[in-house]
């Protein structure tokens, strides 16, 4: 049976026997108090410390300025790096936030087919520009050229002219839509 005071400890044997031997003294000149508080030595040596007593660490901290001696440009750069925890960042905008990522999924059971069809329907219902609507009316696909526009317009006018359809009101409405679409696209091409 072991004695009650012979417990094992992770500390070194000398530390158990003489706890005062490892006590640090304050690094402030002329102070002999125990140093329990650390403070960085400089901006360039943030992992090396001075050890101070409570009174001297308070005095050191109140007078210490991380940015002392740095030009304004360097301070601004440091603040910007600190706002992202000094991690790299990438620009937003054309190349960043507006970029749509497309993922190709292997979907052997067609689990996502319904979602894809719904997305296509939403996209079709989305508000299009007048030029897009005009392209639909004239049944054109991009890229649009002046020659292609003119040829398509002539073909549709011949087919939907009210005189060619015996005064049909539906053909007359379609003819008006074709004319309006042609003028929208011609204006956008001329601009």
From TrEMBL:
Give the highest taxon in the source lineage. Answer: Bacteria
Q: Does the keyword Cell membrane apply?
A: no
Q: Which UniProt keywords apply?
A: Chaperone
Q: Pfam families attached here?
A: DnaJ (PF00226)
Q: Does the keyword Glycoprotein apply?
A: no
Q: Where is the composition biased (Basic and acidic residues)?
A: 22-40
Q: Which residue ranges does the record assign to the J domain?
A: 133-190
Q: Where is this region: Disordered?
A: 1-40
Recorded protein name is: DnaJ-class molecular chaperone
